[in-house]
Amino acid sequence: MSSLLKCLAVDDEPHALELLGLYIEKTPFLELAKAATSPLEAMEWLQQHEVGLLFLDIQMDELTGLQLLEVAEPKCPVILTTAYSEYALESYEHQVSDYLLKPFSFERFLKAANRARARHRAVSPPPPDNPPQPGYIFIKGDAKHKYHRLHLGSIHYIEGLRNYVRFIGEDGRIVSLQNLGALEEELPGQQFARIHKSYIVNLRHVQEVDGNSLLVAGRRLPIGGSYRAAFHRLIEAYRLGL
User: E strands, 37-169, where?
Assistant: First the structure.
């Protein structure tokens, strides 16, 4: 599964910026990293962060979108948004990915986003030749210098218990002295997902997702509010095979 494209959305009209954010949230392969009403703020943010896709209004007071492109020279695909069709020819001289004429529908937005994703894939360098991830981890046991070797596929879900975590799976229940947040960083993101401040689940054992909860290996677990949007985007991306 490809990673999400982190988006920077720039428009000095709050309503237009809000609509862009809603469209981005509805698109499984996009993630809104930053929304800015000031082109100067956006340019500074663009220079300090990695951006996968830039949505950029043309007519803004401090700096036009075309001027921002000339100064910042972003390396990511750019989709221009404007209410004025006369900028179309000039915009393509900047090799933008697409040009959205306001007001635009979600269908038209999605077409532009798909085109930008294809361009991003074409210019992105191939991933480094990293060795394959092992299918197991070593977790701390209940004595000093004691560790358990645990196969990742055998884990159904993991529960956080203050400074301990509990692994529930085919090997029963194993408690280990470690932090759930630190453990999350060690687990492969394409297989495990954080759904709650207290739970990480193995996506291969998820049987059902129902609104604010899911069923994994016969146990119903809650999906926390701060994790809900990202988790549902992940599930949608899996469904679409992205």
Answer: 53-57, 78-82, 98-101, 136-140, 147-151, 155-161, 164-169
**CATH code for the domain of 165:** 2.40.50.1020
**Model confidence over 161-195: pLDDT tens digits?**
888 899 999 878 888 888 888 888 888 877 889 99
At residue 66, what is the residue type?
A: L
Distance of CA 145 to the CA centre of its chain: 37
Q: Domain of 42: which CATH number?
A: 3.40.50.2300
- Domain tally for the chain? 2
Question: 50 Cβ partners below 8 Å, 6+ apart?
Answer: 6
Phi-psi group of 241: left, alpha or beta (phi > 0 → left; psi -120 to 50 → alpha; rest → beta): left
- In terms of Cα–Cα distance, which of 14, 138, 11 is closest to 79? 11
pLDDT digits (tens, 9 = 90+) for 83-126: 877 765 565 566 788 889 999 999 999 999 998 888 877 655 55
Same-domain check for residues 20 and 117: yes
130 lies in some domain: no
Closest by CA position to 231, among listed 45, 19, 31: 31
